[in-house]
Amino acid sequence: MVTNWSFQQGFIDYLEQGEISRAEKVAELFSQEYQEEGDWYFMEENYYVWGKTMRAAGIPLADSPRRPRPPRNGVPPGSDERTHRKPPRPDPMIESNGFNGAQAGPGFDIRLAIYDQNRNPILFKKPREKIKHWLPIQVDNETVGWIGLEGFQLETDQLASSFLQQQQESAYLIAAAILILALGVAALLARQFLRPIHKVAYGAKRVASGDYSHQIDVKGQDELAQLARDFNQMTATLKRTEGLRKQWISDISHELRTPIAVLSGEIEALLDGIRQPTPERINSLYSDVQGLGQLVEDLHQLSLADQGALELSCQQVDLYKIICNLMIPFVPRLEEKGLTLELNANRKLNFIVYGDARRLTQLITNLLENSLRYTDSGGITLLSLQPQEDQVLLIIEDSTPGVPEDSLNRIFDRLYRVDKSRSRSVGGSGLGLSICKNIVEAHGGKVSASHSHLGGLKISIYLPQNAS
User: Of 227, 221, 230, 235, nearest to 197 (Cα)?
Assistant: First the structure.
């Protein structure tokens, strides 16, 4: 509707500007008439001159009483033959200006009127308030009269009205065709866009039903394709997590079943009288119970870390002092196995970190226990402290046996054990390094595993010196 109204107004303005241009030509013709006659007396009730001027300007006359009748003997009706002056012949310039070729629309002449310099009507008593445009008639740069033009009325111009109606109908048809085409294109685009969305929705249902192996076929580089890739990555992560969960449950069951089976067998042998309850056997049973209790405690610590409930009472702690205090009980135990414990640290440097002294003690204890448990007799365990800008680097490394390359990335996994030399036979729950990793991350630090130049395992830990 707005487009239709805008086109109609623009079309009317265009026609009106054309009429103003033709009215200006009429004013030029009457200027020539006035120059020859010297006044407007010749135009009073002289419809003949008016009509002839209109025709000279290429303006058709309406079928109305104001159309001039042919003159009698060359004299306009109502004129005195003795006083009649023959109208001047049209200037040859009229023909060359193309007036006859630029025909005005029907009804144009009845909206024209001629006035003197004071805007008093000379011919056709048309009220001045009806005039919209005033075109001056000038002679020697002096205004001697006016051509008045009423505003354009679309209803009075059947040709323009018919053209406008035709254009409007064409516009409606074009708009309808564009709308149909747009709907068709929109339907195709919607189908194209919805296809990957349907795939994602179907994949979500599969995942909700427990199928974490479902993958979406990804094509393209747009946002929907990226969404599908993210979905595939999510399902892969869920599948891996589900696998770890199942393995975790299986490993826990196995870890608990083994000591319980041993305890059950030992107690049954005592009850059946097969074995005697000697102090050695009682101590063995007590050791098994302690190991089982340690496993349960380790599982509890990991569950606290998973829940974000690992309690920390952080303050400024001297890491050097913690290590020195731990070396007192560990040195004899290591020497018993033929191992050497060394500390490489410059006491003059600052090894203060921001952390929980109890948890940091647990961290270093677990690492020393791990080294004590797995390092071959005659080997060495080396602790190093190095300040690193706003961090302290703690390194614990030992001699052979080493860890295979493919096991370095999994060594912090729960219940993961390296086969052969680092097996269950030497004790441990397989949770110590996982607990160490959780403690380090709870302090805002980082931990990594690599090969040691001593031939064994190297654990590098970065701990912040200030609260983050």
Answer: 227
